[in-house]
Amino acid sequence: MSADLLIEEVHFRRDWINPYFLGRKSLLVNLSDLAAMGARPYACLLSLGLPVSLLGEYFEKFIIGFLEECDRFEIPLMGGDLSRSEKVVVSVSVVGYLASKGPLYRSGAKGGDSIILIGDVGVSELGLRLIRQRSSKCMSEIADLPSLESWADGPDSYRWLLAHFLPEIHLEAAMWLQEHELANSMIDVSDGLGCDLLHILEESKCSAEIRVEDIPVPPGADRITPASRELILDGGEDYALLFTCSQEQLERLKQSYPPAFSPYRVIGRIVSGEAELRLVSDSGSEVYHRKGFDHFS
After folding, report:
1. pLDDT tens column, 54-92
2. Hey, what's the torsion of the CAs at 263, 264, 265, 271, to 10 degrees?
3. For strand 277-281 and strand 207-211, is the pairing parallel, antiparallel, or unpaired?
4. Quick check: 237 and 80 in contact, CB under 8 A?
5. Which residue ranges form the domains of the chain, and what is each CATH number?
6. pLDDT per residue as tens digits for the range 203-231
7. How many Cβ atoms from other residues are within 10 Å of residue 13's Cβ?
């Protein structure tokens, strides 16, 4: 079971996202929490706090988007609550199950494991930066993909905006890894690659090295520079899948990984020692200091 909040002026601005996209995203980010443990979605709950002025069209567009994702992943909306609020508050709870074997925890990483990434990192942050640069309130009026593509004015920027509004979650890949016992630990990257990898290291009581050049750079971004390195390590809300596996598991992964899933990338390894992440590059190595999103920093 998992629960998540999306709060206006904390997680989103109402003038920067249409309620239709917000409805879809609010379920997607919760399903990613189930993916992080290899669970299969079963049902969801939705509670909304809304200003009275938004009970009409805004509410309807939100629900349409939310239910579209319910249909796509074949999970029912079982109930919830609606309340008056000064700002928009979205609370989603999801329930998942495991058909066999146990869940994948953050605490299962072992010395010698490879660190593997499925999906892109830094892309959602690029989408947010694009919206900020244009400072356009008309974003709230964009309610379909053709309009979003037109506003983006380019394939790379369109991909950035898609990643920000409708993140790709790797649910099928996560369930496959769990069912085939090909991961020792796993997490979804919501607060930033470096920050979330540290969560695994802290829970598993081990250290890690990642090679920065092996992390895929977002489309349209420069190759590895100080700016792009910060983007791929600290950009949040990508919902990529990060997991560790032994060398024997990695060999089986190479032989049987379904081509329909997003490609995986080996970006580092788990080593013994205290919970510390070292960044290795052609110019040397350094200790990573947590910079990912923190609600209370």
Report:
1. 999 999 999 999 999 999 999 999 999 999 999 999 999
2. 180
3. parallel
4. no
5. 2-97 (3.30.1330.10), 106-125+167-287 (3.90.650.10)
6. 999 999 999 888 888 877 766 566 677 88
7. 15
Length of the chain, please?
297
Specify which residues 187 forms β-bridges with. Answer: 242
Q: State the residue for tokens 């791929």.
A: 232
Tens of pLDDT, residues 107-139? 999 999 999 999 999 999 999 999 988 876 688
Other Cβ atoms within 10 Å of 46 Cβ, number: 24
DSSP string of the chain, one letter each residue: -EEEEEEBTTTB-GGGS-HHHHHHHHHHHHHHHHHTTTPEEEEEEEEEEE-GGGTTHHHHHHHHHHHHHHHHTT--EEEEEEEE-SS-EEEEEEEEE-SSSPPPPGGG--TTPEEEEES-SSHHHHHHHHHHHHT-GGGGG--SHHHHHHHHTSHHHHHHHHHHHSPPP-HHHHHHHHHTT--SEEEEESS-HHHHHHHHHHHHT-EEEEEGGGSPPPTTS-SS-HHHHHHHHH-----EEEEEE-HHHHHHHHHH--TTSPPEEEEEEEESSSS-EEEEETTEEEE----S--TT-
Count of other CB atoms within 10 angstroms of residue 248: 9
Structure tokens at 218: 């977002």
In the block, tokens 């997003």 appear at 262
- Alpha carbons 190 and 170: distance in angstroms, whole number: 13
Task: Give the pTM.
Answer: 0.92
The pLDDT assigned to 297 comes to 66
